[in-house]
Amino acid sequence: MTVELTKALIAKLIDFRENELQELKDFLKVLEQTPEPITETPNASFLVYKNKTYARVLEDGEKLCVYPLPSLTISRNDPAIARFLQMKVLEQLKQKYGCQYRLEIAEDGERLRAIVVIGTGYDKKRFLNACAWSLEKAANRTSVK
Fold first, then answer.
1. One domain, residues 31 and 47
2. How far apart are CA 84 and CA 16, in angstroms?
3. How far is CA 135 from the centre of its chain?
4. Which of helix, strand or coil describes residue 73?
5. Phi, psi angle pair for 53, to nearest 5°
6. pTM for the full model?
7. What is the pLDDT of residues 19-39, one digit of tens each?
Protein backbone atom coordinates (compact mmCIF):
# COMPACT_ATOMS: atom_id res chain seq x y z
CA MET A 1 0.00 0.00 0.00
CA THR A 2 1.40 3.35 -0.96
CA VAL A 3 1.67 6.36 1.28
CA GLU A 4 -0.74 8.34 -0.90
CA LEU A 5 -3.38 5.61 -0.70
CA THR A 6 -2.96 5.38 3.07
CA LYS A 7 -3.35 9.16 3.43
CA ALA A 8 -6.51 9.09 1.29
CA LEU A 9 -8.03 6.28 3.39
CA ILE A 10 -7.22 8.08 6.63
CA ALA A 11 -8.74 11.33 5.28
CA LYS A 12 -11.93 9.44 4.31
CA LEU A 13 -12.07 7.82 7.75
CA ILE A 14 -11.67 11.20 9.48
CA ASP A 15 -14.42 12.70 7.30
CA PHE A 16 -16.71 9.75 8.05
CA ARG A 17 -16.13 10.06 11.81
CA GLU A 18 -16.74 13.83 11.73
CA ASN A 19 -20.10 13.23 9.99
CA GLU A 20 -21.02 10.65 12.64
CA LEU A 21 -20.14 13.10 15.42
CA GLN A 22 -22.25 15.84 13.81
CA GLU A 23 -25.24 13.48 13.55
CA LEU A 24 -24.86 12.53 17.22
CA LYS A 25 -24.68 16.22 18.22
CA ASP A 26 -27.85 16.95 16.21
CA PHE A 27 -29.60 13.99 17.84
CA LEU A 28 -28.56 15.24 21.28
CA LYS A 29 -30.06 18.68 20.51
CA VAL A 30 -33.37 17.06 19.58
CA LEU A 31 -33.40 15.05 22.79
CA GLU A 32 -32.74 18.15 24.88
CA GLN A 33 -35.70 20.08 23.45
CA THR A 34 -38.61 20.27 25.84
CA PRO A 35 -41.91 19.25 24.27
CA GLU A 36 -44.70 21.79 24.58
CA PRO A 37 -47.61 20.78 26.79
CA ILE A 38 -50.85 19.77 25.14
CA THR A 39 -53.23 22.67 25.59
CA GLU A 40 -56.48 21.15 24.41
CA THR A 41 -57.71 18.13 26.30
CA PRO A 42 -61.25 16.83 26.38
CA ASN A 43 -63.32 17.20 29.52
CA ALA A 44 -63.44 13.79 31.16
CA SER A 45 -65.88 12.53 33.76
CA PHE A 46 -67.70 9.41 34.84
CA LEU A 47 -71.34 8.58 34.28
CA VAL A 48 -72.75 7.62 37.68
CA TYR A 49 -76.32 6.44 38.20
CA LYS A 50 -77.74 5.31 41.56
CA ASN A 51 -74.26 5.45 43.11
CA LYS A 52 -72.81 3.09 40.51
CA THR A 53 -70.38 4.01 37.72
CA TYR A 54 -71.46 2.90 34.25
CA ALA A 55 -69.28 4.79 31.79
CA ARG A 56 -66.50 7.28 31.08
CA VAL A 57 -67.62 10.48 29.37
CA LEU A 58 -65.31 12.54 27.17
CA GLU A 59 -66.43 15.90 25.83
CA ASP A 60 -64.37 17.70 23.20
CA GLY A 61 -66.11 20.67 21.62
CA GLU A 62 -69.24 19.43 19.85
CA LYS A 63 -68.29 15.78 20.29
CA LEU A 64 -69.55 13.80 23.29
CA CYS A 65 -68.40 10.20 23.77
CA VAL A 66 -69.82 7.79 26.32
CA TYR A 67 -67.66 4.71 26.88
CA PRO A 68 -69.41 1.99 28.90
CA LEU A 69 -67.08 0.30 31.36
CA PRO A 70 -65.67 -2.84 29.69
CA SER A 71 -66.54 -4.92 32.75
CA LEU A 72 -70.26 -4.34 32.09
CA THR A 73 -70.26 -6.09 28.67
CA ILE A 74 -73.29 -4.18 27.37
CA SER A 75 -74.91 -5.88 24.38
CA ARG A 76 -75.62 -3.65 21.41
CA ASN A 77 -78.90 -5.54 20.91
CA ASP A 78 -80.17 -5.01 24.44
CA PRO A 79 -83.65 -3.44 24.32
CA ALA A 80 -82.55 -0.53 26.52
CA ILE A 81 -79.87 0.32 23.95
CA ALA A 82 -81.48 -0.68 20.63
CA ARG A 83 -85.10 0.28 21.28
CA PHE A 84 -84.89 3.08 23.82
CA LEU A 85 -81.54 4.84 23.53
CA GLN A 86 -81.02 4.48 19.80
CA MET A 87 -84.58 4.64 18.50
CA LYS A 88 -86.07 7.18 20.90
CA VAL A 89 -83.24 9.30 22.31
CA LEU A 90 -80.54 9.37 19.62
CA GLU A 91 -82.97 9.54 16.69
CA GLN A 92 -84.75 12.45 18.41
CA LEU A 93 -81.41 14.28 18.77
CA LYS A 94 -80.80 13.69 15.08
CA GLN A 95 -84.23 14.91 13.96
CA LYS A 96 -84.73 17.77 16.41
CA TYR A 97 -81.18 19.19 16.66
CA GLY A 98 -79.42 17.84 13.58
CA CYS A 99 -76.92 15.93 15.69
CA GLN A 100 -75.01 13.02 14.25
CA TYR A 101 -74.56 9.88 16.29
CA ARG A 102 -73.03 6.45 16.07
CA LEU A 103 -72.85 3.39 18.23
CA GLU A 104 -69.37 1.88 18.15
CA ILE A 105 -69.26 -1.88 18.51
CA ALA A 106 -66.35 -3.89 19.94
CA GLU A 107 -64.35 -6.29 17.77
CA ASP A 108 -66.45 -9.25 18.90
CA GLY A 109 -69.39 -7.67 17.03
CA GLU A 110 -71.69 -7.88 20.03
CA ARG A 111 -70.61 -5.52 22.80
CA LEU A 112 -71.25 -1.78 22.79
CA ARG A 113 -67.93 0.08 22.90
CA ALA A 114 -69.06 3.72 22.70
CA ILE A 115 -71.96 6.09 22.10
CA VAL A 116 -70.78 9.12 20.12
CA VAL A 117 -72.87 12.26 19.55
CA ILE A 118 -71.66 15.21 17.48
CA GLY A 119 -73.70 18.40 17.59
CA THR A 120 -75.04 21.18 19.78
CA GLY A 121 -78.31 22.54 21.09
CA TYR A 122 -79.48 19.46 22.96
CA ASP A 123 -79.67 19.06 26.74
CA LYS A 124 -76.51 17.12 27.59
CA LYS A 125 -77.66 16.42 31.13
CA ARG A 126 -80.90 14.80 29.92
CA PHE A 127 -79.01 12.84 27.28
CA LEU A 128 -76.50 11.54 29.83
CA ASN A 129 -79.35 10.61 32.19
CA ALA A 130 -80.94 8.59 29.36
CA CYS A 131 -77.57 6.92 28.70
CA ALA A 132 -77.16 6.10 32.38
CA TRP A 133 -80.65 4.61 32.61
CA SER A 134 -80.08 2.53 29.47
CA LEU A 135 -76.70 1.27 30.64
CA GLU A 136 -78.11 0.36 34.04
CA LYS A 137 -80.96 -1.65 32.51
CA ALA A 138 -78.63 -3.37 30.03
CA ALA A 139 -76.05 -4.14 32.72
CA ASN A 140 -78.69 -5.79 34.91
CA ARG A 141 -79.57 -8.23 32.13
CA THR A 142 -77.59 -11.30 31.14
CA SER A 143 -74.04 -10.35 30.16
CA VAL A 144 -72.59 -11.04 26.71
CA LYS A 145 -70.71 -14.35 26.48
1. no
2. 70
3. 20
4. coil
5. -85, 130
6. 0.69
7. 999 999 888 888 777 777 766
